[in-house]
């Protein structure tokens, strides 16, 4: 019974997290930061929203790259970053894999913050963009379709 509950909980979590992960992957792989910030500024989004999104969009691929470098270096030294390697030698794995990853993440966040300040992210003037960003007919159709699906799902949930 407990195993079934554990498996059902895992599938429920997977169902909810998988969609967010796919959306994050699509956003990171297809969107440039200047495009995102220009679009959000054009929509009138507050800077308290646009700046963290811009930093997160730059941060995720950098950490993924650092994780790959650290993983390769530790495998050459015979330390496995897998859960099984962690179970066999937890302190060695923490020392050799996770500490360098956290140090790299800290250094990367500092570098990204300095680069953002150097590019004028704190400038109080209205943000400009070289790209011409506008909503087209297809964009409005997709937004309307999404709104219709969301309204339908809410109506079904309230009906049951």
Annotation keywords:
160 residues, mainly alpha, flat
Residue share in β-strands: under 5%
Please state the average pLDDT score. Answer: 83
Structural class: mainly alpha
Q: Ends: how far apart?
A: 28 Å
> Quick one: overall form?
flat
Q: In sequence order, what are the helices and strands, one letter per element?
A: HHHHHH
Largest sheet: none
Kindly state the percentage of residues in helix.
over 70%
Q: Give a count of the beta strands, DSSP E runs of length 2 or more.
A: 0
User: What is the CA-atom radius of gyration, in angstroms?
Assistant: 21 Å
Task: State the helix count.
Answer: 6
Low-confidence stretches: none
Give an account of the 3D structure.
By secondary structure, the protein is mostly helical. It is built from 6 helices and no strands.
A few lines on this structure:
By secondary structure, the protein is mainly alpha-helical.
SSE map:
Layout: H1 2-30, H2 33-43, H3 47-76, H4 83-88, H5 90-118, H6 137-159
Helix pairs in contact: 2-3, 3-5
């Amino acid at each position: 019974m407990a195993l079934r509950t554990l498996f059902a909980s895992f599938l429920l979590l997977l169902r909810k997290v998988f969609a967010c992960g796919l959306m994050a992957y699509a956003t990171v792989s297809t969107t440039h930061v200047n495009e995102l910030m220009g679009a959000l500024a054009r929509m009138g989004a507050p800077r308290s929203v646009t700046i963290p999104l811009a930093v997160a969009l730059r941060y995720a691929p950098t950490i993924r790259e650092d994780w790959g470098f650290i993983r390769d270096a530790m495998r050459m030294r015979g330390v496995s970053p897998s859960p099984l390697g962690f179970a066999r030698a937890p302190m060695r794995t923490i020392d050799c894999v996770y500490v360098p990853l956290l140090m790299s993440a800290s250094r990367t966040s500092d570098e990204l913050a300095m680069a953002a300040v150097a590019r004028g992210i704190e400038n109080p003037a209205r943000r400009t963009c070289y790209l011409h960003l506008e909503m087209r007919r297809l964009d409005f159709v997709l937004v309307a379709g999404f709104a219709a699906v969301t309204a339908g799902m809410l109506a079904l949930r309230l009906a049951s």
